[in-house]
Structure formats: structure tokens, C-alpha cells
């Protein structure tokens, strides 16, 4: 009994780890239920009676949208199914089973009924979403939030996020200086689309990536909404040497003027962690205490040389 319980716990733990490790599915408008319902000429709930390789015999149980007067409730249809390999990498491919109810988006072509994408397993939540699409005034134009411009240095990662809203959810595309980013054959550029936002990531930014970027959100109705941001990629900044380490800085003491005599200036040299005096013309010494009687007309100032802590001389 303990062994079975331990095995069950391990199995549950493995399932949880697999769920956490699974990559997050990105948004695809072709798989979005709202878009499929909005574009489909007819939508209905049907029960599968029999299956073939590329078709299914179904009975209509409930109609959400008619194409003219088609279909009728309780009608039995021969439904042509789409091929297995569809856009979005087969994300919404559902294996049909007999005597199960599915939501079908379809259109009538002559005397044939053709499914527009694989049928979806019927749930109460799905039915509620489809009914919302067919309510009057459902569709709305796209809106986008302003984006922030980015300044960075070469080699860094640039991330632009565009938040948009519409009913059905908008289709978002990116442009660089007016040209579609989708046409840029660079692996450094990556676009991640979600239901109401899109992210453009530029890895290892270069100087040629500096440009004006646009996010265009197109809804089912109205013109596209546009948000723009400038990206500036600058060369790396090299740190300039601190002059205080070589030329000295004012001495860190309450009254620096009291240390040097005869009007000398007290300077602190950080590189050797010592202080020295910058003497006016005519004076020298460690604290400018000596009068210089030699000719120093070619020099504007006199410095006292000392042996620093790093066994180097400075003046």
C-alpha cells in the first residue's frame, strides 16, 4: 500500500514538473475562437455519428449563425474536414470521436458543407464566448497604449512591448522605419504575440538597429491603431581616468589652508593616499616653509617631491 501511494505521488510530481517546464503557447489569431466565429459564415453545435478519413457525418443540434437559411436544426450533414496540417502548427487540431458534441465553424459550398478549421470540443464556456461574438455591437476598433523609447548600448537586449485591445482581439504587426519586421531575415529579431499584447525583442543590439519602430494593431473594424517608439543604440561608454588620482584633489580636512604655509595649496593624491603642498612662486619645502632664492622664472609653481607609499615619486 505504501509503495502504491509513493508511486502515485511521484507520478503527480512528474506531471506538475512537466506542466511547469512546458513552453507557454503564444497567441495565434487563426486559432482564436472569437476570430473563427466572427469570420465563419455558419456556426453550429453538432454530434458526430460516423467518421471517415477526410469527412464526418454529423447531426446539427444547435445553430449559432445561419448562412442564409442553412443549416437547419436536426439536419444530418456530410461535413468535409480540413487537412491535418494547418496554420499555427496544428494547435487547434482535435481528434474527433463518435457520439461526441463539437462546435463547428463551416460554410456551404454548393451541396457540400466544409468545416473551416477542425471542430472544437463543446463546453459551456465555449458556447458562452461564441454567443457573445454574435451579439449586436460586439466588434470594436483597435486601440493601443503608448510605447516608451529605448536608449541602450551595443550588445544589450532591447525589448519593446505593445499593448492593444479590440473585439475580436487585434492582429498586431511590427515595422522598422516603415518596413515590416517580418521581412527582416535576422535571428536577432523575435516577435512574441499574446492575446492583447505583442513583444519585440532584439538580441545583441547593433548600431544599425537604431530606428523608429511602429506597432500596428488591426481590428475587425476601423483603421489600424499605431504606437511608435525610437530605439537608439549607442557605442559602449569607456570610463575616463579620474584627474584627482594624478593631479590631486583638495585635502579632506576641516581647514586645508592651515596645513600649507605662505599661501600654499594643500592637495590630496588618492593614488598614494598622501597629501602635499602646491607652493607659490618663491617658496618650497614640504609645507612651503622655505623661501626659494634660486631663479624659477620658467616655472609658475614649485612642488615638493616625496616618496609615495607605492614606491613611486610624485611632485
UniProtKB/TrEMBL annotation:
UniProt keyword annotations, A-Z: Disulfide bond, EGF-like domain, Immunoglobulin domain, Signal
Superkingdom to which the source organism belongs:
Eukaryota
Instruction: Domain (EGF-like): give its ranges.
Output: 247-289
Q: Name one GO biological process term.
A: dendrite self-avoidance
Cited InterPro entries: EGF, Ig-like_dom, Ig-like_dom_sf, Ig-like_fold, Ig_I-set, Ig_sub, Ig_sub2
Signal peptide annotation: 1-23
Report the Pfam families cross-referenced here.
EGF, I-set
Question: What SUPFAM superfamilies does the record tag this protein with?
Answer: EGF/Laminin (SSF57196), Immunoglobulin (SSF48726)
Q: What is the name attached to this protein's record? A: Protein vein
Supply the source organism for this entry: Helicoverpa armigera (Cotton bollworm)
Name the gene that codes for it: HaOG202337
Amino acid at each position: 500500500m505504501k509503495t502504491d501511494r509513493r508511486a502515485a505521488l511521484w507520478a503527480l510530481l512528474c506531471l506538475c514538473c512537466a506542466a511547469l517546464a512546458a513552453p507557454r503557447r503564444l497567441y495565434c489569431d487563426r486559432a482564436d475562437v472569437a476570430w473563427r466565429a466572427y469570420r465563419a459564415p455558419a456556426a453550429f453545435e453538432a454530434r458526430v455519428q460516423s467518421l471517415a478519413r477526410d469527412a464526418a457525418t454529423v447531426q446539427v443540434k444547435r445553430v449559432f449563425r445561419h448562412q442564409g437559411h442553412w443549416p437547419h436544426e436536426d439536419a444530418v450533414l456530410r461535413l468535409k474536414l480540413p487537412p491535418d496540417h494547418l496554420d499555427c502548427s496544428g494547435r487547434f487540431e482535435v481528434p474527433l470521436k463518435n457520439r461526441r458534441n463539437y462546435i463547428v465553424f463551416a460554410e456551404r459550398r454548393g451541396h457540400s458543407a466544409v468545416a473551416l478549421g477542425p471542430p472544437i470540443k463543446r463546453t459551456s464556456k465555449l458556447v458562452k464566448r461564441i454567443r457573445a461574438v454574435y451579439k449586436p455591437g460586439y466588434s470594436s476598433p483597435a486601440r493601443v497604449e503608448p510605447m516608451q523609447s529605448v536608449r541602450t548600448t551595443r550588445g544589450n537586449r532591447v525589448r519593446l512591448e505593445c499593448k492593444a485591445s479590440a473585439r475580436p482581439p487585434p492582429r498586431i504587426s511590427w515595422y522598422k522605419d516603415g518596413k515590416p519586421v517580418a521581412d527582416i531575415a535576422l535571428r536577432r529579431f523575435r516577435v512574441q504575440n499574446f492575446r492583447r499584447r505583442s513583444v519585440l525583442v532584439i538580441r545583441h543590439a547593433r548600431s544599425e538597429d537604431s530606428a523608429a519602430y511602429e506597432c500596428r494593431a488591426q481590428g475587425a473594424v476601423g483603421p489600424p491603431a499605431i504606437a511608435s517608439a525610437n530605439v537608439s543604440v549607442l557605442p559602449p561608454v569607456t570610463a575616463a581616468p579620474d584627474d584627482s588620482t594624478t593631479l590631486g584633489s583638495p585635502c579632506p580636512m576641516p581647514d586645508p589652508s592651515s596645513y600649507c604655509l605662505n599661501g600654499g595649496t594643500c592637495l590630496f593624491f588618492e593614488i598614494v593616499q598622501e597629501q602635499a603642498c602646491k607652493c607659490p612662486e618663491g617658496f618650497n619645502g614640504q609645507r612651503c616653509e622655505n623661501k626659494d632664492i634660486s631663479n624659477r622664472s620658467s616655472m609658475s609653481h614649485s612642488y615638493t617631491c616625496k616618496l609615495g607609499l607605492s614606491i613611486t615619486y610624485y611632485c
